[in-house]
Specification:
Blueprint lengths: L12 E3 H4 L4 H9 L4 H19 L2 H23 L14 H30 L6 H22 L4 H4 L2 H4 L1 H6 L1 H30 L4 H26 L12 E3 L9 H13 L6
Antiparallel strand pairs: 1-2
Helix pairs in contact: 2-11, 3-4, 3-11, 4-5, 4-11, 5-6, 6-10, 10-11
Length: about 280
């Protein structure tokens, strides 16, 4: 309450992107995030699911891949909604929506990564590397995280192929999206390096498949956490939630001092002994 007029004081709020900008520190937090207890248990559980269902055949392995993708998508959406700890694996009430759907969404996102390059190679009827091919691959690597993020947020399937979304939103997000795309590329390289190292170790020691799957899932958790953090900050520009959901008090967790608290503080100052007495 305002002590002068007695009216209710409304908190001054600004966009979260101004107080908590997406940057290098955010990506560092995403790298650290999987190493909390629930994150490691999630990676281990998903690794075991991939291993066990993979033993049952190709179709069962396909279903396992869908389950794991659904968990990763849930990490993005729960992070975007403000969760900092992974408390549950999400809703699996619909087999098509929560098992088959994530695979379809990931496949459509993959089209942005390799589709333009494959179309160019098919048109030329030549698989030789050219500057245009390299450029198309680089563009695909830059845009594919946006398509994957669009799929993870549960938007309609046709939006994943919509150039206004996959190309327009990165232009709107600017530097923040460029950081995410670069992070996604580093995660991809890390996955490739980690897989190569495990294959060498497996030749001499023999690593359980479940353990290999778990190790490969940890970088994936980092990427989907980073995507959720970007949406948490700038999701209003992506059409995810209302604008008011991205307004936060300027004071953060601080609250104004009440009149009673101020009186007690003044009394404490008056009765405090002088320095050196």
């Amino acid at each position: 309450m305002c002590l002068l007029c007695g009216g209710a004081a409304q908190p001054i709020r600004v966009r979260r992107a101004l107080l908590e900008p997406f940057g290098i520190e955010t990506l560092k937090e995403a790298v650290r995030w999987p190493f909390h207890r629930e994150g490691l248990l999630t990676a281990l559980a998903c690794g075991i699911v991939l291993w066990l269902l993979g033993l049952a055949g190709l179709l069962a392995g396909f279903f396992a891949f869908g389950v794991v993708l659904a968990v990763l998508f849930h990490i993005t959406t729960s992070t975007a909604q403000g969760e900092d700890e992974f408390r549950h694996a999400g809703d699996f009430s619909s087999f098509f929506e929560h098992v088959i759907g994530p695979v379809i969404r990931a496949a459509l996102a993959g089209w942005w990564a390799y589709g333009p390059l494959l179309a160019y190679l098919w048109w030329r009827k030549d698989v030789s590397i050219t500057p245009v091919a390299v450029l198309l691959l680089a563009i695909g690597a830059f845009l594919s995280p946006m398509a994957l993020l669009t799929g993870a947020l549960g938007t309609p399937l046709h939006q994943i192929l919509n150039p206004m979304v996959v190309i327009g939103y990165p232009l709107r997000l600017g530097r923040d999206y460029a950081l995410l795309a670069g992070f996604a590329l580093l995660i991809s390289l890390c996955e490739s390096l980690l897989l190569a190292v495990m294959q060498v170790i497996d030749q001499y020691v023999g690593l359980p498949n479940a353990l290999q799957n778990t190790a490969l899932l940890i970088p994936a958790l980092m990427l989907f956490r980073a995507m959720g953090l970007l949406v948490r900050v700038r999701g209003d520009e992506l059409g995810y939630g209302g604008e008011s959901a991205y307004l936060v008090p300027v004071l953060g967790r601080l609250r104004p001092v009440t009149g009673q608290q101020m009186t007690a503080l003044n009394q404490n100052i008056r009765t405090r002994p002088a320095s050196g007495s």
